[in-house]
């Protein structure tokens, strides 16, 4: 260990003296970067997360290309060979252009031949096993009501725009027109006859499907979403769909559906109600479009680029498609992410980071314990259950303790489309193999090279992949204040999800159970309601007055608020009574909040800003920084704010939950 003095972790030259932190902490720290930075042409937004993600992409490309791909058709046997073969198949643009839309010609022919709803159902099921979206979304997770068993979740699905609101809200009228034109253009490129008519039918059916969907706010309410149904009850809910035949065609065991979670029952019923003979022509058009849309990235460069023109440029504002090699990396990571991750960890992860993170997590857990113990609004009985849940948190740091087995996956360097289908079938089989087996609590749901973190309520775990454990989030040479303000707040945020409006409905064993008294829940919701009101008033730059949806973002806002507040308490706790040092002229409190701000550095295109306001449960980054600190007494003390400062908030209006 070095005895050198810790670095502040704050680049003083980056701070904008023209913007006072008391008025705009976000631009005081990030303003100079924002002013000089152009968003790369292939990005809809760009900032700290994107920079680290680009670095991880480059590292992964080096890993992937370290092994020469086997010759096309010769087979790939080792994991390294399979990774190389997958990447080589994606990078073979000459082959992709030669084939054009030929890889999907057979599937389009099967769609044209569909003569009944039963035949449609069988074909949708078969294609779903091969990776295309079906009538409904399906996934397997542990059961919120019985977290020691796996269960199938059945969700609303079936649309090509980001959300049901895109089909009805006035602000998306132009996007709807572009989408209809896009469908027709793509069908034409794929060689579909009567593309205009097919596009009209496909879009019309999507509109009717979207009209059955729940909105984003309702769809994040776990109590509304947790609807157990037996197989017979699922069939009764959706009588137009023959589930036994559907599952047989899909290759899924009917026993796995003995009991399911029907997440949005009336939406599932509404979608199924459209499975009638009078809609058959529309369903053929819908499935034709689903085949083209779901395969576009795997076809010719012309088709792939046309798909990007809508889903990239029109929806997010990004003018340039990502480099082919970056898309190739994404393809490989989606297929064999942990195989790549194991090599990424060997080459790029400092094992000392695990020890430092363990220590930080320990401080955050204890700070939450101290805070929960002294909450004025919580009764002793509920407090006891909250502390019990806190004691059962499981942190996972860096990478899994056991790696995924890809031996059953076949890859061919000369067959991109086939590789995609094989990957989908491998994942399908892997997921359904879980049914009836004990819960694998060692499983990770992000790869180590992912720049992110998550809380999993069913496992009551917080997970921090290796790639996020670097600046601007973490550096072992930094002073503690900076690390606590950055990665410490991220840790606190993820723990905070265990106590947000949804996570707080699970107990320490990951079971969805009401462990709150009515009075305590009412007190909690009074606080969260005040936070919702704060965010409902906010409109970010580039949004043309569109505001944040406080109800949609409340879970993440609770995570941000609790995470930063508890990270500050954890930092003070780590000092053990010692005086915080002044480094580079900055106090510990100043370094803490400046580190928080620099972690949220980002620029966003107006199209992307509006899209995210409609569908993203996270608030815009400027508010994740500024609105949170307005609520913290420690921020006001650190920067001596006074009434009249833009970030001043009267003490009576500040919200503190955990």
Index terms:
658 residues; alpha/beta; Collagenase (Catalytic Domain); four-stranded mixed β-sheet; 25 helices; 52% helix
**What would you give as the CATH superfamily of the largest domain?**
Collagenase (Catalytic Domain)
Class computed from helices, strands and strand pairing: alpha/beta
CATH class of the largest domain: Alpha Beta
Counting structural domains, the number is 3
Annotation, overall tally of beta strands:
9
Percent strand = 5-15%
Number of helices: 25
Measured distance between first and last alpha carbons: 36 Å
The largest sheet is:
4 strands, mixed
- Segments where pLDDT lies below 50 for 5+ residues? none
Record the strand order, biggest sheet. 2-3-5-4
Portion in helices: 40-55%
User: What gyration radius follows from the Cα positions, in whole Å?
Assistant: 26 Å
Globular, elongated, flat, extended or rod-shaped: what is the shape? globular
CATH topology term of the largest domain: Collagenase (Catalytic Domain)
What is the name of the CATH architecture of the largest domain? 3-Layer(aba) Sandwich
Compute the average pLDDT.
96
């Amino acid at each position: 260990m070095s005895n050198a003095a810790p670095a502040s972790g704050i680049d003083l030259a980056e701070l904008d003296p023209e913007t006072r932190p008391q008025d705009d902490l976000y631009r005081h720290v990030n303003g100079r970067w924002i002013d000089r930075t152009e968003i790369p042409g292939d990005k809809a937004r760009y900032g700290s997360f994107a920079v680290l993600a680009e670095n991880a992409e480059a590292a992964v490309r080096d890993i992937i290309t370290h092994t020469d791909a086997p010759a096309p058709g010769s087979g790939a046997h080792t994991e390294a060979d399979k990774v190389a073969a997958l990447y080589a198949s994606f990078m073979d643009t000459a082959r992709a252009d030669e084939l054009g839309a030929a890889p999907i010609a057979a599937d389009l022919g099967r769609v044209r031949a569909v003569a009944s709803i039963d035949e449609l159902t069988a074909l949708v099921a078969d294609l779903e096993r091969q990776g295309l979206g079906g009538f409904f979304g399906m996934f397997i997770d542990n059961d919120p009501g019985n977290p020691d068993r796996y269960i199938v979740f059945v969700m609303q699905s079936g649309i090509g725009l980001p959300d049901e609101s895109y089909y009805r809200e006035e602000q998306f009228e132009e996007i709807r027109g572009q989408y209809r034109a896009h469908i027709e253009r793509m069908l034409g490129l794929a060689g579909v006859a009567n593309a205009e008519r097919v596009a009209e039918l496909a879009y019309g059916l999507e509109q009717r499907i979207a009209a059955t969907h729940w909105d984003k706010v309702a769809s994040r309410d776990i109590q509304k979403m947790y609807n157990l149904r037996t197989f017979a009850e699922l069939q009764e809910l959706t009588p137009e769909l023959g589930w036994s035949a559907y599952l047989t065609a899909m290759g899924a065991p009917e026993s796995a559906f003995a009991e399911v979670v029907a997440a949005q029952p009336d939406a599932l019923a509404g979608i199924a109600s459209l499975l009638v003979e009078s809609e058959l022509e529309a369903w053929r058009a819908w499935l034709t479009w689903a085949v083209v849309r779901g395969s576009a990235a795997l076809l010719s460069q012309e088709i792939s680029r046309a798909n990007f023109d809508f889903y990239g440029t029109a929806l997010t504002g990004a003018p340039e498609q990502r480099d082919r090699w970056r898309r190739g990396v994404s393809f490989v990571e989606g297929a064999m992410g942990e195989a790549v991750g194991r090599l990424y960890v060997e080459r790029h992860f400092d094992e000392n980071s695990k020890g430092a993170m363990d220590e930080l997590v320990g401080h955050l857990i204890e700070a939450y314990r101290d805070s929960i113990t002294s909450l004025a609004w919580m009764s002793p009985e509920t407090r006891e259950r909250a502390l019990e849940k806190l004691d059962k948190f499981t942190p996972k740091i860096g990478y899994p303790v056991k790696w995924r087995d890809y031996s059953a996956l076949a890859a061919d360097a000369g067959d991109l489309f086939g590789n995609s289908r094989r990957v989908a079938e491998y994942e399908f089989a892997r997921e359904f193999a879980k049914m009836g087996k004990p819960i694998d609590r060692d499983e990770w749901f992000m790869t180590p090279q992912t720049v992110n973190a998550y809380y999993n309520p069913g496992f009551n775990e917080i997970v921090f992949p290796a790639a996020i454990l670097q600046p601007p989030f973490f550096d072992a040479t930094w002073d503690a204040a900076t690390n606590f303000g950055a990665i410490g707040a991220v840790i606190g945020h993820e723990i905070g999800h265990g106590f947000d409006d949804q996570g707080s409905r699970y107990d320490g064993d990951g079971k969805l159970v009401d462990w709150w008294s009515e009075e305590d829940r009412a007190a909690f919701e009074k606080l969260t309601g005040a936070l919702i009101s704060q965010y409902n008033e906010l409109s970010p730059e580039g949004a043309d007055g569109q505001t944040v949806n406080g109800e949609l973002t409340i879970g993440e806002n609770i995570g941000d608020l609790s995470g930063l507040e508890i990270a500050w308490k954890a930092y003070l706790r780590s000092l053990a009574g010692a005086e915080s040092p002044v480094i580079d002229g900055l106090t510990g409190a100043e370094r803490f909040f400046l580190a928080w701000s620099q972690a949220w550095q980002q620029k966003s295109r107006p199209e992307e800003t509006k899209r995210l306001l409609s569908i993203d449960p996270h608030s815009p980054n400027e508010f994740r920084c500024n609105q949170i600190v307005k609520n913290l007494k420690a921020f006001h003390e650190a920067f001596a704010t006074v009434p009249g400062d833009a970030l001043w908030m009267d003490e009576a209006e500040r919200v503190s939950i955990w």
